[in-house]
Structure formats: C-alpha cells, structure tokens
C-alpha cells in the first residue's frame, strides 16, 4: 500500500481548515465539543492565515474546505477564500446555514467559493433537536436554495444515528428536490458530545441494513452519494459504496488518507491528518511555530498512516487478509470506539466473518 501512495505522491490534495473554533450552536453529535462557550483559544491572525493559504498552494493542495466551528463567524473569511482561489485552489465552505443570507452568498461568489456544504441531521424536528435550536432546519434549507440559485454547487452532510436513521429515505427525496449535488453520509461516532449519547450510535446489527440501503440508493439517486470513510468495507457492497464514477480505478477502501492526501488545520494553527481526530496525540505541529511544509515533510510525521505496519492491527482486524491495504479502517472511528487506530469494529467484512 505504501508503494501505491508513493506512486500517487504524498501531498495534501484536500485540506479541511477550521478557520475559527467559535460556533453559534451546541449540537449533541459534535465530535469536537465546540460551541458558544468552547474554543481552541487564540486563533491565527489574518496575516498568518493568508500566508498559510500560500503554503497550502505551494504544497500542491487542490481543494480547501473552510470550516469551523461556524466558518462564517470569522470576519475575514472572504479574504481567505479569495486568497485561496487566487492560487488556483478550489475553495468550499462548510456551514450550519444560520448566518447565510443572499448578501453572504453573493460574497461567496465574489470570492471564488464554488461549493457550499450544509449539515442536515434529519427532518425538521430531528434536525432542530440535534442542533438544540428551533429554526435550524429552515435556515439550512434556505441556505441550500440561495446557494443553488447563485450557481454554487451544494452539498449536504449527514451524521447517521438512531434518531435520523429512519428518516434517511425522506431526507434523500427532499435533498434531491432541493437540487443538492452531493450528499455525504457518514456514521456518528462516540467522540466529543456524542460520547455522552452512546445510545444513539448504530450497533453491529444495524450496519449491514444501513449499508445495503446506501448501496441501493446510490445506484438510483440523481445526487452523488458520497459514503463516509467509516462505512464499509470489503463485502460485495464495496464497489458500489466506494465508486466515485465509471472511471474510478480503485472502487474499494484503500485505507485512511490522513497525512497522505488529506490534512486538517485547527483554528489555533495545530496541524492534523484529519480534524476528526480530537486528541492532542494527533497534532503534528503548529504553523505558528514551524512552516507548514516543514510539518508535512517531517520524518515520522503522521506515523499512524505513513509508518503503518500490519503488526499494529488489533482485535478482529489482526491477521485480516485485507489488513495491509485497509490498515484497520477509518482511524477516527477506530479511535472513537476502541481508543486507538487500526481496529475499527464496525467493519462489515469482520462482522460478516463473525456471523
């Protein structure tokens, strides 16, 4: 697998950049635990953030998603988006939709934002309950409509749990009718505030029917349904779940891309392979202390992916025929469920072998 990545080239193709940790909501499923009274402390200045945009471009980054917290709470987001786009890097934004008005969408267009991803957690009552604020669903729908009308490609992001699992079919139809182009569907994991609601996490018996629904729906949908990295792997459903298009050369799970092709940057300048990994253990450095290139190219950096050895697999992943390629599934899910990488117990293949 290391040879495969070396042939592709190790570079941060995709960056999720938490430009602020401030948030105007306190959602019950938030893995980071951020909210109105929680933050990561001092955030990057505009000057340093603009420099960082250049550093990402110089490393070959192709796409940056500006996130939070709530990204729109950072006043200089138009400058950052415009700078990124000026370096021929595609830029998108992830938002809960509460602050999006026609004027905001106009500013997005003017500064090169080509994708707006809005979190949708269920139908109206479920979404507002998970977001802990009435009116959130209507704001999210309005944001999707405004962005679509302005020519911005719209995405929806859903974390699946027991509250919204039964609503997915209706959600699909509604999002499709709203003109959403891509629906990212992933499993909720017991991290952050969601660790206090483990009763909402899908268990082993619910995973196969969920994956079958995803596979069937992906085949018929007018939207592209992007399957989260914590769903799968290696059953007969795999080609459908992983397929990105008719020319996709690798329609199967190829292991966690954190530190290989993806990078995450926190509001305080911390660099991670994946922003979902909340532990300080996964911080590779801070851009206030070292240039991004130095952090990215440091020997031994992102060891959980770049330095993986099959001997690190644990529990039912140990000795698996797919272990060298899979590396124990989604790192975030494995850490959330077991406390360490390389042993995601929600793997469909290992569950099928156990029955």
Q: What's the helix and strand layout?
A:
Layout: H1 2-8, E1 14-18, H2 46-58, E2 63-67, H3 77-86, E3 90-95, H4 102-110, E4 113-119, H5 124-131, H6 136-149, E5 153-160, H7 168-177, E6 182-187, H8 204-220, E7 224-227, H9 238-242, E8 262-265, E9 270-272, E10 285-286, H10 292-296, H11 303-306, H12 323-326, H13 331-338, H14 348-354
Parallel strand pairs: 1-2, 1-8, 2-3, 3-4, 4-5, 5-6, 6-7
Antiparallel strand pairs: 8-9, 9-10
Helix pairs in contact: 2-3
Spell out the key features of this protein.
globular, 14% strand, single chain, ten-stranded mixed sheet
Structural overview:
By secondary structure, the protein is α/β, with parallel strands linked by helices. Helix content is about 35%, strand content about 15%. It has 14 helices and ten strands. The chain has helices at about 1-10, 45-60, 75-85, 100-110, 125-130, 135-150, 170-175, 205-220, 240, 290-295, 305, 325, 330-340, 350-355, and strands at about 15-20, 65, 90-95, 115-120, 155-160, 180-185, 225, 260-265, 270, 285. The chain has a ten-stranded mixed sheet. The longest helix is centred in the middle third of the chain and has 17 residues, at about 205-220. The chain is globular, with a radius of gyration of 19 Å. The chain starts with a helix and ends with a helix. The mean pLDDT is about 95.
């Amino acid at each position: 697998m290391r040879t495969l990545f070396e042939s592709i080239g190790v570079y941060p193709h995709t960056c999720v950049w938490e430009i602020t940790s401030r948030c105007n909501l306190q959602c019950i499923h938030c893995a980071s635990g951020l909210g109105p009274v929680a933050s990561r402390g001092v955030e990057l200045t505009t000057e340093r953030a603009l420099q960082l945009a250049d550093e990402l471009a110089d490393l070959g980054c192709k796409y940056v998603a500006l996130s939070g917290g709530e990204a729109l709470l950072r006043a200089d987001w138009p400058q950052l988006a415009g700078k990124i786009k000026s370096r021929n890097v595609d830029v998108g934004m992830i938002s809960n939709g509460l602050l999006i008005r026609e004027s905001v969408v106009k500013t997005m267009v003017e500064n090169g934002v080509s994708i707006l991803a809005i979190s949708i957690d269920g139908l109206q009552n479920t979404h507002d309950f998970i977001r802990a604020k009435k009116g959130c669903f209507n704001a999210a729908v309005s944001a999707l409509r405004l962005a679509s009308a302005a020519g911005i490609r719209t995405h929806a992001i859903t974390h699946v749990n027991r509250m919204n699992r039964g609503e997915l079919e209706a959600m699909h139809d509604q999002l499709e009718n709203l003109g959403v182009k891509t629906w990212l569907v992933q499993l909720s994991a017991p991290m952050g505030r969601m660790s206090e609601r483990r009763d909402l996490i899908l268990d082993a018996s619910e995973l196969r029917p969920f994956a079958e629904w995803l596979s069937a729906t992906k085949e018929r949908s007018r939207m592209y349904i992007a399957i989260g990295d914590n769903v799968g792997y290696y059953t007969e459903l795999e080609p459908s779940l992983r397929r990105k298009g008719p020319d996709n050369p690798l329609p199967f799970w190829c292991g966690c891309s954190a530190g290989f092709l993806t990078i995450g940057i926190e509001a305080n300048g911390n660099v991670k392979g994946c922003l979902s990994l909340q532990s300080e253990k996964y911080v590779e450095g801070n851009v206030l202390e070292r240039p991004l290139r130095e952090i990215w190219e440091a020997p031994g950096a992102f060891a959980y992916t770049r330095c993986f050895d099959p001997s690190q697999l644990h529990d039912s992943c140990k000795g698996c025929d797919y272990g060298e390629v899979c590396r124990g599934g989604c790192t975030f899910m494995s850490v959330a469920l077991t406390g360490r990488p390389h042993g995601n117990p929600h793997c469909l293949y290992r569950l099928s072998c156990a029955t």
